[in-house]
Each structure stands twice: as structure tokens, then as C-alpha cells.
């Protein structure tokens, strides 16, 4: 489908190639579902033809086009026919050819100076993070299934004491994708069906945060859901694991909305859940501040 022409005809601005949200193979525009920072978060995958927002997740094709183009959802079909050699329908489930799990080629156990500088810049102790979270590194080369993972901290994700998937965090702060996940067909468990953290250290109170660096900051009593968009499987795991859950997301408006939704889901399942608002994000806290915050949560009571 000629998505670029469609957007141009309807006056939508597209992320240019030099923009931080530009990614080859995707056409990005402002997401109509997000509030707060508009950005160019909504991507259309040109080959497979589906929508993903880097902030709030995947969206139904017809509903998304209806919002983007400001047309009735019943008009979407006829509009898209003009820009497509075939009629778009919702993607059917596709059988994924599974491959063995492995880390990217070029992954090494030792952190280089560049990785250590990145962690120090974010007020993390590189030795402690590596010891506790078993992080690894790529330098000028890192490859898996034609995906480029170079210049990243490789974060193994454990579940039931087994590495089941991974994330790679860009250390240059220049790549449009800060985090790159393991290809889905190589995951032992899908990243959005589990939580990040040390299961062996969890107690009755779980501190639920967005990402891996937030977990590093709050320590082993916390768990991450890999973004603000959560799946029902993750809610079930939270409800099964913890008696109380403090949801601590970033302070932007979209994150606050998702935090409220997660609290509601957990309350419905009988979990003593509540959200706590902070300034900025947990990963950006000073360590002493984060440690005090965690201690205070141990005695926090819902009014």
C-alpha cells in the first residue's frame, strides 16, 4: 500500500529520515491514541502492514486509520482501496517458524569502557549491575537474524532460573530504537508474558515499574513489564506472585493513564494495588533517594 501518498493526501506529517523515531521499513506519524508528548511514535510496517506505537503498543488497523484520517470507520475500506492493490483486512494469525534461542553473535561477558561510561553516566555501578543482573555487551559487531545489536548492553531475561529472552540497550543514545528485543521466534518465553526481575528475591510487596533500568534502580524487590503497555498474562503473573503491588511508572500523562489501568486490573483480581507518582522516572533517581523510596513503600497504606 502506498502509505506515504495516503498520509500526504490527508495532510499527515511523516517522521523524516534524520528524525530519532525514523526506522527503515517503517513509516511513522503522531499516534492518535497517545496523550502527552506527541512525537512520531506510531509506526506502520511497510512489508507486513500493521500498526505499532512505540509507547502504547499495537492497534487495530481500521480503528487507527479512522482516527488518523478523521473519517468514519465504515469509510476506511473504500479509502484504502484507492491506495492499495488489494483490500486490507486484519492480519490473521501467522505460524511462526521457531528457531533456537541464542544471544546475538558478538556478545561478550566483559563490559568495555563505553558500556561502563554509559552506566556511570546514569549513576549505576557497572560492577554491581553486572554481578546482580548478569548483563553482557556488544561492541562494533552484534548480529542476530539480520538485526543489528552493536554497541548495546545485552540484558538476559531470566524466568524460573532460565534465560528465556533478552533485550539490548543502545549505549550511544543515537539509535532510534533504544531497546531491541530478542526476535519473537527465538524466545523461549515471550517477553510480554513475563516480568523482569529476580523471582527468588520477591516478597509479598511487588514494586511494578516500566523497564529494566527502573528495576536496577529499585532493586530486587521490584519487577518490570517492559514498557507501559501490559498484557493480560503479565497481570495474571503479578496477581499470582504478589499480595500488594505498588505501580511506579514515569510521570508523563500516558504512563499515568496506563498505571491507573494496571491498578484497576489488579484490584479486580483481589490484589492490594496502588500507584505512586514520582517526578521523572525511577531509573533517573539518585540511588539513596530510590533506596529511601523503597523503604517507605514497605509501610505505605492506602487511604
The biggest beta sheet, please? Answer: 4 strands, antiparallel
What is the overall silhouette?
A: globular
The end-to-end distance, rounded to whole angstroms, is: 53 Å
Percent helix, as a range, is 25-40%
CATH topology of the largest domain, by name, is Dna Topoisomerase Vi A Subunit, Chain: A, domain 2
Number of domains: 3
Secondary structural class: alpha+beta
Mean of residue pLDDT values:
88
User: Which spans of ≥5 residues are poorly predicted at pLDDT below 50?
Assistant: 85-94
Number of strands: 14
**Major sheet: order of its strands?**
1-2-3-4
Q: In DSSP terms, counting alpha (H) and pi (I) runs of 4 or more, how many helices? A: 9
- Rg value: 20 Å
- What is the CATH top level name of the largest domain? Alpha Beta
If classified by CATH, what would the architecture of the largest domain be? 3-Layer(aba) Sandwich
N-to-C SSE string, H for helix and E for strand: HEEEEHHHHEEEEEEEHEHEHEH
Measured by DSSP, the beta-strand proportion falls in: 15-25%
How would you characterize this protein structure?
The chain folds into three domains: 3-81, no CATH class; 113-192, Alpha-Beta Complex (DNA primase DNAg catalytic core, N-terminal domain); 199-297, Dna Topoisomerase Vi A Subunit, Chain: A, domain 2 (3-Layer(aba) Sandwich). With 303 residues, the chain is of the alpha+beta class. It is built from nine helices and 14 strands. The termini are far apart. The strands form four sheets. The protein has a four-stranded antiparallel beta sheet. Strands 5-8-9-10 form a four-stranded antiparallel beta sheet, with no helix packed on it. A four-stranded parallel beta sheet has the order 12-11-13-14. The chain has helices at residues 3-9, 61-69, 76-81, 113-121, 126-133, 212-218, 232-241, 253-268, 287-297; strands at 26-29, 42-45, 51-53, 57-59, 136-137, 143-144, 147-148, 152-159, 162-170, 179-181, 205-209, 222-224, 244-247, 272-275.
Amino acid at each position: 500500500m502506498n502509505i506515504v501518498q495516503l498520509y500526504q493526501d490527508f495532510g499527515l506529517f511523516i517522521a523524516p529520515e534524520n528524525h530519532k523515531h525514523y526506522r527503515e521499513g517503517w513509516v511513522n506519524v503522531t499516534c492518535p491514541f497517545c496523550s502527552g508528548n506527541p512525537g512520531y511514535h506510531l509506526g506502520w510496517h511497510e512489508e507486513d502492514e500493521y500498526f505499532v506505537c512505540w509507547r502504547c503498543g499495537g492497534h487495530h488497523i481500521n480503528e487507527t486509520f479512522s482516527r488518523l484520517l478523521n473519517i468514519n470507520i465504515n469509510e476506511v475500506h473504500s479509502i484504502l482501496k484507492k491506495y492499495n492493490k488489494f483490500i486490507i483486512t486484519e492480519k490473521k494469525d501467522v505460524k511462526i517458524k521457531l528457531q533456537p534461542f541464542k544471544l546475538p553473535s558478538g556478545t561478550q561477558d566483559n563490559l568495555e569502557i563505553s558500556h561502563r561510561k554509559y552506566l556511570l553516566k546514569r549513576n549505576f555501578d557497572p560492577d554491581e549491575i553486572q554481578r546482580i543482573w548478569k548483563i553482557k555487551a556488544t561492541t562494533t559487531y552484534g548480529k542476530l537474524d539480520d538485526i543489528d545489536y552493536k554497541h548495546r548492553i545485552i540484558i538476559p531475561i531470566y524466568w524460573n532460573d532460565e534465560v528465556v529472552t533478552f533485550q539490548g540497550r543502545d549505549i550511544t543514545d543515537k539509535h532510534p530504537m533504544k531497546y531491541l528485543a530478542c526476535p519473537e521466534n527465538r524466545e523461549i518465553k515471550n517477553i510480554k508474558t513475563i516480568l523482569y526481575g529476580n523471582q527468588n528475591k520477591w516478597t509479598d510487596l511487588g514494586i511494578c515499574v516500566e523497564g529494566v533500568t527502573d528495576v536496577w534502580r529499585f532493586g530486587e524487590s521490584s519487577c518490570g513489564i517492559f514498557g507501559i503497555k501490559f498484557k493480560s498474562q503479565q497481570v495474571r503473573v503479578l496477581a499470582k506472585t504478589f499480595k500488594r503491588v505498588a505501580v511506579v511508572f514515569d510521570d508523563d500523562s500516558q504512563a499515568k493513564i496506563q498505571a491507573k489501568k494496571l491498578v484497576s486490573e489488579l484490584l479486580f483480581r483481589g490484589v492490594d494495588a496502588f500507584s505512586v507518582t514520582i517526578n521523572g522516572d525511577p531509573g533517573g533517581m539518585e540511588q539513596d533517594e530510590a533506596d529511601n523510596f523503597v523503604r517507605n513503600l514497605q509501610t505505605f497504606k492506602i487511604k
